[in-house]
Amino acid sequence: MFSSLQLFQQLACPDKQKCTRPKCLFSHRTDLPAPAKLVVPVEQPVASTSKLTPPATTIPAKRPLTALLLPPQQATAGPPVLRVNGAQSVVPIPVRQALLKTLYDHFVVLYDAILPANPTLAAEHALRQEQEVYNKSNKQTYRVAIIQCAAALKRRPAPDSSSHPSVGTEEEVRVREEALKKRKALRVTRANVEHLILSKEDLKVWGFVMDVPEGEGGAKPSLVGELARCDRCGREFVVKSPPASTTTEGEGAGGRSREEGECVYHWGKPITRTAGGQRERVFRCCYSLAPGSGDDGCSQGPHVFYEKEVERLHARHAFSWLKPPPEDEKERPGTLLDVAALDCEMVYTTGGMRVARVSVVDGAGEEVLDELVRMDDGVEIIDFNTRFSGITPSSYYASARLSLSAIRESLDKLINRETVLIGHAIDNDLNTLRIVHDVVVDTAVIFRHSAGPPYRKALRDLAREHLGITIQTGGGSVGHSSVEDSIATLDLVRWLIVNRPPKPKPPPGKEGEKSPAKVGEGGGCSRE
């Protein structure tokens, strides 16, 4: 038997004088102090400011359930908290939590440059990294594996963007590197993209120009002094030559100050998001409700216009086919490509939206052309659209030397009518280059949108989903890069070749076989 510690001797016996226990654990002294009162704090209801008479019984306000119950492994901007079932963990939870904090600290140091724009990234990756290590370890090897992983994080180069190869867990980085090596080692040729070339029917469905329009091309390059409908606010306006100050960069307009702008608009397209359990349409630029939000827009700049009618485009600058392949193979230029990825950046001008930068990469992803395009005589730039084009007035006026006609001559040395042109919504690029071409691979059509035509997925979404990279993140004065976009488009085609090879054709003459679905059925993308 254990000896008594006599801890109950400070408490009065509840039976007092009626106690019949021979050796009572409690005290029967009469001079004991009164026991302290137990005070339980109760949350008081908040006084109502309403003039209505409150009900007799008021239910105290309670904290919402979401404040008490968090989803498992939810990452926050601070150190993450491991939420797992302790009974099912072979490693003690306190040990895992301490080593998770170690991983988090290393990710914070590694992501120092990108954390301001991605505050929860370090916590998210620390949670995933710890789970990766735990899944591959046992109770004896877990701690050593975490330490080795932390050392590997120290050796990584610091990323400068969220799409940098150093971003991610060890397994994610390894898988991405292997996939990248496999893609980069693949040279895209006509033979391995033959099954992805759009048919004539697909080209018609998606609005490709199939022939040179009638009439004199380039007869009316500019619309100065005439009415046009603004592509931003939808109002009619008289097209005017921009002021001389357009050689310096301004807010929204090519050098025009915000106070002088004539058009107030939202530069972001309406998107659907869920807020408070309800779906709503908001503008991507400022997240105000669309359509209408109490004001006319969040940005200010000049009125601009965009034309898509083929006859109007032909009147600004003539359409033409690419040159046919040479009949004599000896005359074939050594630089002629059988496959090329193409992308353009456009600006708003007095002649509508015109090409200002052209980039071409070959089947291996090597850059073969990247030129700024000088506007035709009589055509002036109204807005450089830097947020999307990435072109600034200073860089443009310092480097744009070749006209569109000269650019077309340069392209004739690289591509011809038999070259497979790869692009994303490439019909827009061909139109702005005034090229008629019918041998194309369009990733905006091949990667189908769930809503079907005419909707098409954005290139940045496809790159993030299939390539694990983030593109078009410049924004502001940086914008897009046509070289980056053309390489991303080529990599998407490489991904298709590796992960979705063409199905073998049925034996000739076999009856009952269904013809394969057209490439373009159910896909699509928007102009941007």
Automatic annotation (TrEMBL):
Chain segments carrying region Disordered = 499-528
Please classify the protein's predominant subcellular localization into one broad category: nucleus
One term of GO molecular function: exonuclease activity
Q: A cellular component term (GO) from this record?
A: nucleus
Q: Which SMART domains match?
A: EXOIII
Q: Which residues form the signal peptide?
A: none
CDD domains named in the record: REX1_like (cd06145)
Q: Where in the cell is it found?
A: Nucleus
Query: Among the record's GO biological process terms, what is one?
Result: negative regulation of gene expression
Keywords recorded for this protein, A-Z: Exonuclease, Hydrolase, Nuclease, Nucleus
Domain Exonuclease stretches: 338-502
The record's family statement is: Belongs to the REXO1/REXO3 family.
Put simply, this protein is called: Exonuclease domain-containing protein
